[in-house]
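Bumping with the actual sequence this time:
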Amino acid sequence: MLAAVSSLTENDLEIDTGAGVSIFKNTDHVYDLYDDNEMIEMHGLTDNKKQLHSSVQGRTLFGIVYVSDRSIANVVSYGRLKNHAWAVWQEADNDVFRVQMTRGGKVYQFERKCGVYVYNTSSNVYALVSTVSDNLKLYSNVRYIEQMQQLTSSRNWGIHPKLPLRG
């Protein structure tokens, strides 16, 4: 992660597989801030190589995080993310992590940037998940029924619905 820090923006959230807790530098992505009066100590997350202490926590899209303006990045703990998300996965044919926090919810796509996986909160880019049930949700019931009736009647007459009729 340290090598990538100079290319990360304040809106980048970085997945860290070695992090035991999540910690954000940018409070714009955190809500319901509170002090839990239990100070934690972290190493390796400051630019001056000193220990980082924080007892301030808050909620984010990706769960509870600690907050410190001394952190060098917005770090999401992979372990905690995996414990709290509905699904976290990576496919063999592409180099991204996908995270779905709730069943049927948005799928956030963390893309590789300088060797780490990053989701940019200002981009509002989501992965497209294409399943039959997702595709059916795109149509109203009436439109779906009309299309199915058109397809069925076209097939009964031996007509392909997309080909022009010959006269």
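The tokens above came from a reply further down the thread. Helices lie at 78-84, 132-137, 141-156.
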